[in-house]
Specification:
4-stranded mixed beta sheet, alpha/beta, 454 residues, binds pyridoxal-5'-phosphate
Length: 454
């Protein structure tokens, strides 16, 4: 590993030429290094740390560089290209707009925006009556924080208590980081909002009875902070699964949480940034819990490539802020709206959700077979649909983060991109448009990488 994350020393690797992958240069590509070095000099380092490659184009589930190498993409560019890179529907709609041309309208209306929001509302759960479009996921979680608090104020609650979870991630802006469950990530703020609370996450390997665990965590919070849920608590913010390891809550835990929220008039928000738009084999990941959230925050896979984030909720909740008080410059941009519209059509009309569910079953079966062959290193496979996290731990349960770095780098050298988390997990999330043949090839590569790395 170099200061920028992975080694930037080009090495001779095995040449690869299959139907889906080509590696015909040293890796990293020698010509890419001066370009990367230039970028590191002129761009803030907080943007860096990724595998050293320079993307030139991407098509469906493959990524190309300009030197003839082709990678099979098991990242969807971090859960974004769910409908496939350069999805044809999306490209066609974007080209139509470019030909008009219409690139921006600020908050003036466009037919693209009206048509998209109408389609979105029509195809999501009944309680979602209005939407609010933004550019980044962190804006959507911030907006949900505000909506939950405004709703609490309307009910006469004296404190804007929001309950979040340790280990969760909700974005990098200030409110989102306050809700995030990692203390080092928010130390820069200098204080913690006293009305943002965190419960311990119910890791399935740590707890026995999810309902009891929820009740004891809540009881502890109420006692420690002397809170009256009728007056002091407005809502819950849940990341549908913990991002680093695709760890879902036990269903009974979420059911108990829902019961508590209803009892005390609290809202439930799901942050579906990674889980949404077909990734888990359902349109939204929360569907697996059989609960109905009050507010939904989405982004990433909502457009398969353009900066789109969405907040959904009832008329009553969504109209709590005054006219004009929550717009932002680029929200509901027409390009983004047509991309979002066609992306959702691709999910619903081109069978991408079914593909995620059906291929997901094979995906998980194959990954579990691999787990059974490497029990001393590969401890769990989490996730569902075309989402998987491979959790590497030794026999004493110690995290094997270094091994994950090695496997990710080896996969890169063999023409497969996986999500490197920097932790004891490797995440896999191919575009939902991937074929079974390509998916199986990628899984074989993973097994080779594990074998060569342990
Ligand atoms: C669960 C979750 N919430 C929020 C965010 C923030 O989204 P964005 O990076 O678009 O601001 C992310 C991004 O990784 C995420 O995974």
């Amino acid at each position: 590993m170099s200061g920028n994350g992975f080694s930037h020393q080009p090495i001779k690797v095995e040449k690869i030429k299959t139907k889906y992958r080509t590696i015909n240069t040293k890796i990293p590509v020698p010509e890419s290094i001066p370009m990367l070095d230039k970028m590191y000099k002129i761009e803030a380092q907080a943007m860096h740390g990724q595998l050293p490659m320079i993307w030139d184009r991407a098509d469906n589930f493959q990524i190309y560089d300009r030197w003839g190498n082709v990678w099979l993409d098991f990242t969807s560019t971090i859960f974004v290209a769910n409908a496939g890179h350069g999805n044809k529907r999306i490209l066609k709609a974007l080209k139509g707009l470019l030909n008009k041309p219409l690139l921006h309208t600020y908050t003036f209306a466009s037919s693209e925006r009206i048509d998209y929001i109408e389609y979105l509302i029509k195809n999501t759960s009944r309680q979602f009556e209005k939407a609010f479009l933004l550019s980044a996921g962190t804006e959507a979680t911030e907006a949900a924080l505000k909506l939950m608090r405004l709703n609490g104020q309307k009910q006469g609650k004296s404190r804007g208590g929001i309950i979040c979870f340790n280990g969760a991630y909700h974005g990098r802006s200030m409110g989102a980081q306050m809700m995030t469950g990692s203390i080092p990530a928010k130390e820069w703020i200098g204080y913690q909002d006293p009305n943002i609370h965190h419960l311990n996450f119910p890791y399935p390997w740590e707890i026995e009875n999810p309902k009891d665990f929820f009740e004891s965590e809540i009881e502890k919070l109420l006692t420690d902070k002397n809170l009256d849920p009728n007056k002091d608590l407005c809502g819950f913010m849940l990341e549908t699964f913990q991002g680093w390891g695709a760890v879902f809550y036990p269903k009974k835990f979420v059911k108990a949480l829902e019961e508590f929220a209803k009892k005390y008039d609290m809202l439930i928000t799901f942050d579906e940034m990674q889980a949404g738009f077909g990734r888990t084999g359902a349109l939204f990941g929360y569907e697996h819990y059989e609960v109905e959230p009050d507010i939904l925050c989405c982004g990433k896979g909502a457009s398969s490539g353009l900066p789109l984030a969405i907040v959904l909720g009832s008329k009553e909740i969504m109209d709590l802020p005054n006219i004009g008080s929550m717009s932002s410059t680029h929200s509901a941009n027409p390009l983004v709206c047509v991309a979002g519209h066609q992306n959702l059509k691709a999910m619903l009309e081109d069978g991408l959700i079914e593909n995620s569910k059906n291929l997901g079953n094979i995906f998980h079966q194959k990954l579990n077979d691999i787990k059974n062959r490497y029990p001393k290193h590969l401890k769990y496979i989490f996730g569902t649909g075309l989402l998987a996290a491979l959790i590497f731990m030794d026999e004493n349960g110690e995290p094997l983060s270094g091994l994950c770095d090695k496997i990710s780098e080896k996969a890169f050298q063999k023409g497969l991109l996986v999500v490197h988390t920097g932790r004891e997990s490797i995440k896999l999330a191919p575009p939902l448009s991937i074929t079974e043949e390509a998916m199986l090839e990628g899984i074989d590569v993973i097994e080779q990488c594990i074998k060569e790395s342990i």
